[in-house]
Amino acid sequence: MLKLSLPLRLQLSLAIVVGAALLKHYAWYSLGVYGAIALLWAWLLRVPIRKLGGLLGTELIFLSFLALPLGWERASFLLVRSLVCLIAMNSFLLTLPPHSFGIALKSLPVPAPIKENLLLAGQYMEILLSEVTRMQRSAQLRGLSGTAAWLRYASAAMIGALYLRSLDRAERVYAAMVARGYNGQLPIDSSLRPKERFALLLAWAIAATVTVTSYKI
Q: Where is the chain membrane-spanning (predicted)?
């Protein structure tokens, strides 16, 4: 895996995502440049291909229902652009060490309340995924294996149980955080070093150049 600090990895991923999101519609050449950059980013971070592919497939199925009513030509560009953005961000998230989202989040130039909400949301997502994994393992022990069997097992009652279990764990985690002195502030320092600031500035300059060029072609 590429040896970069978590704040720098997050901000480099955001540079790719923001630049691609602001591209002019149907600027396929510029989108191809971002696609190559996103794939290079995934390779540098050594992302598990199987996990990345499964996550992208699920996300794109959901996005296709939103994009296809807009027409095939417009939907195709939106889906490819979404794919590029998802590759960049999922590559960061899938290589993120456990419980380190707050360290990366600390460096973002956004208001503190937004950081706190994102941090707690990320914590709750980890809890939810952990509960899903435990329920899947329980289903396999009961003789239900495979995707179809898991979908049958995850009935409305089981989804409700998943929500209640996740909510209970989230409350216990938050109570433990408060008991350890959590007061709404992140007690970490994640400022970028001079070399990292230069690398980030260069990345944003490249992203701005590619995006602005898409409007001139």
A: 29-45, 52-72, 78-96, 198-215
Max Cα–Cα distance, the chain, nearest Å: 60
Q: DSSP letter string over 112-176? A: HHHHHHHHHHHHHHHHHHHHHHHHHHHHHHTT--SHHHHHHHS-HHHHHHHHHHHHHHHHHHHHH
Residue listed under structure tokens 């291909």: 49
- The pLDDT tens digits of the residues spanning 163-182 come to 676 677 777 777 877 787 76
63 neighbors 82 (Cβ within 8 angstroms): yes
The residue with greater pLDDT, 2 or 153, is: 2
Contact 181, 135 (CB under 8 A): no
Give residue for tokens 């989230």: 170
Q: How far apart are CA 113 and CA 102, in angstroms?
A: 13
Sign of CA dihedral 23, 2, 39, 10: negative
**Which stretches within the chain are classed as H helix?**
6-21, 28-45, 49-67, 72-94, 101-105, 112-141, 147-153, 156-179, 194-214
